[in-house]
Design goal:
The complex is a heterodimer of chains A (about 180) and B (about 375).
Chain A lengths: L2 H4 L2 H26 L28 E2 L14 H5 L5 E7 L7 E9 L8 H5 L5 E2 L16 E2 L1 H5 L23
Antiparallel strand pairs in A: 1-4, 2-3, 3-5
Chain B lengths: L1 H35 L20 H11 L10 H17 L9 E4 L2 E4 L8 H22 L3 H32 L4 H7 L3 E2 L3 E2 L2 H4 L1 H14 L23 H26 L8 E2 L2 E3 L5 E3 L2 H27 L7 H30 L5
Antiparallel strand pairs in B: 1-2, 3-4, 5-6, 6-7
Helix pairs in contact in B: 1-9, 2-9, 3-4, 3-9, 4-5, 5-8, 5-11, 8-9, 8-11, 9-10
């Protein structure tokens, strides 16, 4: 160790100068910010109110795409259920009233407690009926059963804004509502 | 009757000053570290939606700590385990008593020194109280019935001894220069001018002692970079077994010691309550200019000067705490015994020689 460093004092003063520089610079910016100047004294993103912009490719909560008449575009081909590595999709098929469409799902449940957000279901879908573009990431619950999202919930969701801000409210299952 | 009232007033001022400042330091620490690290810091605690820059966080902390379960380990020594945090906080609080926060004022023919207790040996009293604080720490470490806590207490004791020796030795120079052990006399002595323009603060007359004292003082507060006794984050220290408000009291004691060391540094090295060039009847500038002031305003300015100096010292100590990493145990010991202690002896010798050459202390 060089002799200058063995005496600590100069190094300590250097370090203190660095941190004090940060302190006073940020303090000045905070004060300028309080007077309405467009500077920020911190890099903090105040999360629930502010969000970091999400990438449009980010895989978030699933949604089922609707047809013109509001029925699911899904034809219950079971491709997603088959490809899903986590086995978190559960589909029950039924006849569609329109004879030109083969089937539709009677039930379409996704267990988000198991889902690994790999996006294979989206890629496997031949009808472009399932997408992961809602921008919703906050769906923690207090019990496992409310992690299961049903067809009705998934159909009601809207895609996110271009900047990744979710447009639908977070679908809170009744059991989770306080 | 009036004497009792005055005495209570003096004590109350010091008590409230130290206690509130100690409580506020939790907020200062959070916010200052946040601003130093380009963050915002805790700002969510609110009362009726009012946040006030997170000022309610210390309040929320205290409420949380009071509401928490007080767990006492089965092997703990009941009485000492209970007593230890009180001892820590008690000596942290009482240490401030003989530090003057203002000059001796004269009201209605009465001489009222603005300090909680007037002591001829004020300096020694503060050190005695600071040193006794380590008993709380050792008691806590021993009585917890936990070997890690015991080791933490041992580390605390070793660190405190090596720091306190350096503290005691480093202020010898100050005592020699101002010729008194009374803190009020030392503060008054620092109001004089050197060569007609330089305030004779301890920082000017004893620069080496200032550095040594501040280093040892920071060590005696048991905070980073000298937090080997505590090490909350990993190797754990003397208060492992404490929970709830008792753990909070140990934390509080650290903050109180920070306030006391800041107060000591102010009183001994930064001129105490002195404002440069301010005498009892107003400012006397070196050029001969004079600005008259009413006595009450002078006293107010001087008390404010003391408060501001203490705040600046606390700011500086927080700055150190959030700048430096922890000293290893042997490094801290080596710094205390082989660095600070010999240097303070050297300081005493040099001060003595200089005083001999210039003809003794000023008084």
């Amino acid at each position: 160790m060089p002799t200058a460093q063995r005496f600590y004092l100069r190094e300590v003063l250097d370090g203190v100068a660095l941190t004090a520089g940060h302190f006073f610079r940020n303090m000045g910016r905070h004060i300028a910010h309080a007077f309405g100047r467009p500077v920020k004294g911190a890099v903090t993103i105040q999360y629930p109110e502010e969000r970091r912009p999400y990438s449009p490719r980010l895989r978030t909560l699933h949604r089922l795409v609707r047809r013109e008449d509001g029925s699911p575009r899904c034809v219950a081909c079971m491709m997603c259920e088959t490809v899903c590595p986590a086995h978190c999709i559960y589909i029950v098929a039924e006849e569609h009233p329109n004879p030109e469409i083969e089937k539709m799902p009677a039930r379409f449940d996704i267990d988000l407690g198991k889902c690994v957000f790999c996006g294979y279901c989206v890629e496997a879908c031949p009808e472009d009926a399932i997408r992961m573009d809602t921008g919703i990431l906050e769906f923690s619950t207090y019990d496992r059963r409310s992690m299961v999202y049903t067809k009705e919930t998934l159909l009601a969701l809207e895609p996110a804004d271009p900047d990744g801000r979710p447009r639908s409210p977070i679908p809170i299952p009744p059991s989770r509502a306080v | 009757m009036a004497d009792v009232g005055i005495a209570i007033g003096r004590v109350a001022f010091v008590m409230l000053f130290v206690l509130n400042l100690g409580g506020l330091l939790g907020w200062v620490e959070r916010k200052q570290s946040a601003i130093m690290q380009d963050r915002i810091g805790a700002n969510r605690a609110s009362i009726f939606g009012l946040r006030v820059m997170g000022l309610f966080h210390p309040l929320a902390d205290a409420l949380k700590l009071l509401a928490k379960e007080e767990f006492r380990p089965a092997h703990a020594d009941r009485f000492l385990y209970w007593l230890a945090p009180f001892v820590s906080v008690f000596f942290g609080l009482t240490a401030f008593a003989s530090i003057p926060f203002g000059p001796v004022i004269e009201v209605g023919g009465r001489q009222i020194p603005l300090q909680a207790v007037t002591l001829n040996v004020g300096v020694l009293y503060v050190f005695a109280m600071l040193s006794l604080g380590v008993y709380g720490v050792m008691m806590g470490g021993w009585s917890s019935g936990n070997n890690f806590a015991l080791l933490g207490g041992q580390r605390a004791a070793a660190l405190m001894i090596s720091a306190e020796i350096a503290i005691g030795a480093s202020i010898m120079g100050v005592i020699m220069v101002y010729g008194s052990l009374d803190m009020m006399e030392i503060a008054r002595g620092q109001g004089e001018l050197l060569w007609g323009w330089l305030p004779k603060w301890g920082l000017v007359t004893q620069p080496l002692a200032f550095v040594l004292f501040l280093t040892a003082g920071i060590a005696s507060t048991k905070r980073i970079p000298f937090d080997t006794p505590e090490c909350e984050s990993e190797i754990i220290g003397y208060f492992v077994e404490y929970s709830g408000m008792k753990a909070g009291m140990f934390m509080m004691a650290d903050f109180l010691e920070t306030v006391v060391v800041a107060g000591m540094t102010t009183a001994l090295f930064l001129g105490g309550w002195q404002v440069p060039y301010l005498a009892a009847d107003g400012f006397h500038f070196p050029g001969g200019a004079h600005l008259g002031m009413p006595a009450a305003l002078v006293v107010f300015l001087q008390v404010m000067a003391f408060v501001i100096k203490v705040s600046v010292m606390i700011f500086f100590m927080m700055l150190i705490r959030w700048t430096l990493p922890r000293f290893r145990y042997d490094q801290a010991m080596r710094l205390g015994w082989l660095g600070l202690f010999p240097l303070s002896i050297l300081n005493i010798v040099v001060t003595g020689l200089v005083l001999l050459a210039t003809g003794g202390p000023a008084s």
